[in-house]
Records
---
Amino acid sequence: MSTDTPPPSTARVAEAALRPLGWGGWLGFALAGTGVVVLAIAVARLLWVGIGVWGNNIPHVWGFDLIAYAWWIGVANAASLFAAVLVLRRHGLRTAVNRFAEAAALAAVLAAALYPILHLGRPWLFYWTLPYPSTWGLWPQFGSTLVWDFWGISAHVLVTSMFWYVGLIPDLATLRDRAARRGRIGLARAYGLPALGWRGSVAHWHRHQAAYRMVAALVLPLLLSAQTVVALEFAVTVVADWHQARLPLHFIATGLPSGLGIVLALAVALRHGLSLREFVDRGDMDLLARLLAAAGIAALLAWMHEAGTALLQEDGTTRDAFLVRLAGPAWWIAVVMSGLLPQLFWWQKLRRDLIFVPIGLLAAAGVWLDRWSLVVDGVSRPRVPFPVTAYAPSGDEWALLLGSASFFAFALLCFGRFLPAVSMFETRHEESEQELEEEER
Amino acid sequence: MKRVLGAALYWLLRRPRAAEVVLPPRGAGTIAEFHDADALTEAVRAARAEGWTRFEAYAPHPVPDAAEAMGIHAAPVGWIAAGAGVAAMAGAYGLTMYLSVVDYPVNVGGRPPHAWPVYLPAAYIVGVLVAALAALLSMLWLNGLPRLHHPVFAARGFLRASEDRFFLWISPDDPMHTPEGAQRFLRSQAPLRVSEVPPS
């Protein structure tokens, strides 16, 4: 076993992080930054005035807040599921896309974490869900889904960021050394601090790989619980359409197209925006597109199961509630956009960058509509003894949604700007493994 | 009190031990640069066979063969993470149970205070969280990171160790180490270059 060639240069990847920003980058930062300002204003208004700035009211106690929360968690879940599976299977695709799938997951989970805190009503008291020895001697109600949610979200944020950071340490060291070689000492220090003094010792690599795969493996059970906890918040209520044991599975399965769709669209942006076509190549894109199509099938099965159980069961209340949802357009559009549309990717001819972006984003938007159908249409037949008005989101809610999307974009732009978008050490490793296999043949 | 503080300050601010060892005029060891991972692995095997004990190998990507040749096991990371995770899961469940059964039982609609199914989600999540934390921290701890400086960074061309070159460094702490002996051994491994690491 000998590899005569040195590992391939990943200088291009590091360059993308170290070179000055072009006008396109500045435009992106400006647009996303504006959105983040909108988010800050929306949050400030919410904190100052209160939840009344939103359009929700009985029976629509949850509106955009829970739709967006469930949706962002779904995006984060599918993206980190994808990244974790790639790391664990040591799949060739991982070098290209797992780093930014991790980054997308982290940005999405940060966007998601905004909502449950904001929708508390008195967000500054969120720490009441923590079991801390208060002066009143009271403890949180551990049977409450809100307490599970607290742990679920904080663990999701922490584990996702650790997964991303562990993989990043050696690449930060590469950036540190490249900056140092050019005499940019300040930059070298900025990268060197989070690189923790990594010097690439073979012994360190060995433990690093073990820890990386361990955290990747731990992401999987966490994903299961993240969507499950969200779903259980619905399932423990007595709303007819929500009070179902199938809800956790539904959230996990229908969440997949959203994250994969966004990762697919981001991959196109990386290929063209950061000129990384050779690292994220046609084969990677093909595989990712077919994964999205497969996720669409999983989501379609979940929707068939939903329709089947609702329509076939004897309990008229649940059936009626579901029929109301079928009468609205959201459910059908979700099925078409997230379930049926990605099926186009089974055709080789349609797997093109130009088609990836709209279909990926539509698949993600479709899942948002599914959450709308569940959260809003699901309580349209509320059985309360007074006339109810339909839910209409207010400007503040739109600003919050737009703002959280901008925050997501802003975070990703920062990742793309300052950090290697493709895992450099895995690219080197993978290519040396490939050469080995070719020689053994 | 002052003396304790002084001692603590000294301990915090003192130079790392490896740097203390390499005071001039002694160099900071001898280093060889290699072209590829297999040459490095062969050199590591040879170093072990010849009885060198204090040496480190550097690579821009994981080289499991070389790590195994050095006798490094990654298993402790997994064991620490698994142990911490299970302990945290038990701790979270135990805390929940203690608080809601013993310390402050609340009767909610006649439900039993020890309602174990609803304690499970938080315990499960906390277990996973702590296991992941332990995996990261135990990896850093076993690797002796974070660390502000290491003498090997002063070696010629070492910055390429994070890009495309492979290095074998013999520490001056090695009982067999003399600059000449280390150079002789490293040159026999067909490296690209052998050099003395200047004291940093």
---
Amino acid sequence: MSIRVEQIQKRFGDFTALDDINLDVQEGQLVGLLGPSGSGKTTLLRIIAGLEKADQGKVLFHGKDVTNLDVRKRKVGFVFQQYALFRHLTVADNVAFGLRMLPRKERPARSAIRQRVNELLDLVQLGHLAGRYPAQLSGGQKQRVALARALALKPDVLLLDEPFGALDAKVRKELRRWLRHLHEQISVTSIFVTHDQEEAMEVSDQVVVMSQGRIEQMASPLTVYEQPASRFVFDFLGHINALKGHYDGRSWQAGNAQLRLTTEGACPDGELTLYLRPHEADLSKTPSDSANLPVKLGARSVFGGTVTLELEALGWPAEVMEVELSRDAWQALNAQPGDTLFVHPRQLQTVTCDGNLGPRVTPA
Amino acid sequence: MPLLRTQHSVLPGFTLSFALSVLFICLVILVPLSGLAIHVSQMSWAQYWGVITDPRSLASFRVTLLAAAGASGINAVVGLLLAWVITRYRFPGRRLMDALVDLPFALPTAVAGLTLSALFAANGWLGQWFEAIGISVAYTPLGIMIAMSFTSLPFVVRAVQPVLEDLTPDVEEAAATLGATPMATFTRVILAQLMPALLTGTALAFTRSLGEYGAVIFIAGNMPFETEILSLLVNIRLDEFDYAAASALASVILIASLVLLFGIQLVQSRLTRRWKGH
């Protein structure tokens, strides 16, 4: 079932939580609402669920206006951040709760309920824990019970609020793969909220990046990363290094650092800020004709296939920079902490005077 | 499992604090209790049986039990309501209301009894309205019930309140997304989780009511066979220097209370142990 959100407005006192939100979710998609805390993503999710009322605007499910439909009748499955399991009921009874709440005419027979519960518990691979109480489960298990419970009534729409927020890193990773997989199996239109960029990128068909009650961009994960619609999106997706300096028409300078490049993005007074993504630069022990950015090698963190290096600017003003090298490149560099190195950006993002994104540039 | 399992704690002094607790329990509770047991043990079974099956005693058991049951029933409902209002809503005077709940504990029970009997007497502020619709409160079992529910109300409120505060709103929202009506959410989700605390509070209120003396005797009328409560009968036997009979009667209240308290403890711990995941 497709979801459409039109011109949603929501205020809490003086605080504007959502400002003119429009959103279209195609049937069967898995959409991630991504944003920092306070960006309004959870409020939007709750409005779609019917747990919160918008001040203005409409919510449509499959073209039908459900704005004023009670949460009980919306047929949404909702997974809460802290799971919200019924602690006085067993796992099986938790999952069966929704079925038992159906009006008598629609309620399946006891045996049918039991069978459906078993199916769901098998789906989330928890059949062996049917008789346990929530307090006897691990975080990941609770999460899966909450999901099974939300799916019991075959909802038209599945909504998940920070579904992996309270889990440790390893379980998170497993569960989100599993959620992706599960979604392929049951393909119910789903929206989940997260503040974790990696999570949104890995799980979603479409990512909706939100900031201060507005949607900054909605696109596929690849597009959001490669063609960010705004400075906020660029900034929010992964770490960036901001380099502030002056541009004289041929080269960018800050202190004794220099980059040769051509762009039209600079301010009239010659100020130019460049964003550098950590993986879009190389390091060497000598400067080149096009780039002279001297840095001192600080802490390094070796994890997986990449090595993350902290670099302190030498003789020019900049925050501590972060550059990622492949393990091979790091070994070939053969550098020690304290060594002087030079950064060679492969690609940079210019920031215009009014704070928007300018053209991409390459030093040459 | 070892008899005493002491976990390593950053605060020392388990041995001392444990010994002091045991000493205090002995001095204040167990020694007086054994005094009672000694008195009772001086009687033969036949004598004991004779005292407690005496028609006047049986009548007083009946009055006491029924009134205490009624009072606990009222308190279970009213106490839950009070706890609900205090924890769920924010209104001016909430703190005052919260503090007033403890008043029955603070007030000397005799004062409470006098006040209640003045209020509910046939010509009292409240009693006249009841009298107008043909209900006598003072000097009837109804009056006993009201006095008992006054003194034991805090037990229910204070037992339920912390559990109610711990219930998070998302659980109720979860019930709503699963199609539960407000009524079903209340009974199947909230009340179900409150049950152990509510049972405990009500049982405490009940045992307190069984032994209540001060607040009740002023409003009861104290007619033998009709409005004479057990504690009063114990007192009457004491005035007659019939210590054995007094002890025998007291032992009945005591045993009833102990059985009830242990029973509740058992049910409560069984329920909450599973919920808490032990």
